[in-house]
Design brief:
The chain is mainly β and 84 residues long. It has a single domain, classed as SH3 type barrels. Helix content is 0%, strand content 35%. It has no helices and six strands. Strands 1-6-2-3-4-5 form a six-stranded mixed beta sheet, with no helix packed on it. Strand 2 and strand 3 form a beta hairpin. The C terminus is likely disordered.
Length: 84
């Protein structure tokens, strides 16, 4: 299940991605810095709070949070680096 807060599960540059652990581990948070591809094959370049980048293909456990509703540490997401 993709829990997306943006219309049509489409993230925009500046939106946040929260990748929830399916096995119950710590969630990860990152910010979308580039859109790659179109629906239904959307993927995103994400800068994770650990300060590395990767390409993300939305899948189960991925939540798209519009930048105005950026997640914070009270959401149970581990926060690292300067984006607190």
């Amino acid at each position: 299940m993709i829990n997306a807060s943006t219309p049509a599960s489409r993230a925009q540059v500046g939106d946040w991605i929260v990748a929830h652990s399916i096995s119950g581990g710590t969630s990860r948070r990152g910010q979308v810095i580039e859109l790659l591809g179109d629906q239904p094959h959307a993927r995103y370049r994400v800068r994770w709070d650990e300060m590395h980048e990767s390409i993300l293909y939305p899948a189960d456990g991925v939540e798209i949070v519009p930048r105005r509703g950026a997640p914070n540490s009270s959401d149970g997401v581990a926060m690292h680096g300067p984006h607190r």
